[in-house]
Amino acid sequence: MTAGTVPSGLRGHLPVIYPALMLLVFFVAPFAIMLAFSFFHRVEGGFHEPAFELSNYARFLSPLFVSVLGFSILLCSLAAVICVLAALPFTWLLGRSTPRVQTAWLVFILSVLSLSEVIVGFSWSVLLSRTAGISNLLVALGLADGPQAYAPGFAALLLGLCYLSFPYAVLVLYPSVVRLDPQLTEAARTLGASPLVGFLTVVVPSLRRAITATLILVFVFTLGSYVLPQVLGRPQHWTLSVLITDQAVYQSNIPFAAAIAIFLMLVSLALIGLTLLLSGERRG
Fold it and tell me: Residue 232 in contact with residue 152, Cβ under 8 Å?
């Protein structure tokens, strides 16, 4: 074997070694560091020292943390359901249109993805404001008595999360919708089913795996959002991501912020595993 050559056995494992190395460097190592920091002891002055304490995890039982956790799960679950309900018929109609129309819409959706969460948050805060928002248009059309602010609030936050997640939901559903045989709906209509009944009884069950994947993606994506809750929501609408930022940046409590991040990731993985388990049982 000459210098610079790769052994044949190692060459065959390169497609596996490289992704495993990237996973080790960019996921396992940062996760291990964050896990170690979650057990550190916080000292006065915003510092911390190496230790093995469970006090950071014991704070999870506080009423504040439990309420924030419950609200975060409720908000992200509601956003995931709304996104799927809106994206599924849209993607179905998009998949039945001409290739030129599909290309135009996909380019538009990809352009929306180029907008950062900060831009989306402040844009919706202006649109939902009292001075230069949608309420002024409603007043001009005679649909409202006077301008009012719709943000900050729960509805504004939910709207912003759905707007930010809708393109991802469409892109996840699109490949499965395009591959779906159009003769299935034609057969349903031949048997006397209306377009709506055919869509609900044929298309939706055929796309159940894609729908499950979309729900998981939107839930995890919105669970990590921390700009929109601060811009479009009130303090009682802040999620765990905002709490992590507050503890790490403003409170200088890195160990507790790391513990919350670990717990948040474990909750996400548990919900994902439960969803996949239930989906597998339904398929069985």
Answer: yes
- Which of 224, 81, 272, 72 shows the shortest CA–CA distance to 166? 81
Query: How many whole angstroms separate alpha carbon 208 and alpha carbon 13?
Result: 34
- How many other C-beta atoms can be found within 10 angstroms of the C-beta atom of residue 273? 10
Dist CA 37 CA 224 (whole Å): 20
Q: Which domain holds residue 191?
A: 62-283
pTM of the model: 0.80
Phi and psi at residue 207, to the nearest 5°: -105, 20
pLDDT digits (tens, 9 = 90+) for 42-84: 877 667 778 888 888 888 778 888 888 889 889 999 999 999 9
Residue 277, domain member (yes or no):
yes
What is the count of structural domains for the chain? 1
Residue 54 belongs to a domain: no
Task: Provide the CATH number for the domain around residue 91.
Answer: 1.10.3720.10
Closest to 84 measured CA to CA, from 231, 213, 253: 213
Q: Which ranges of 96-153 does DSSP label H, i.e. alpha helix? A: 99-113, 117-127, 134-140
CA dihedral sign of residues 126, 244, 25, 73? negative
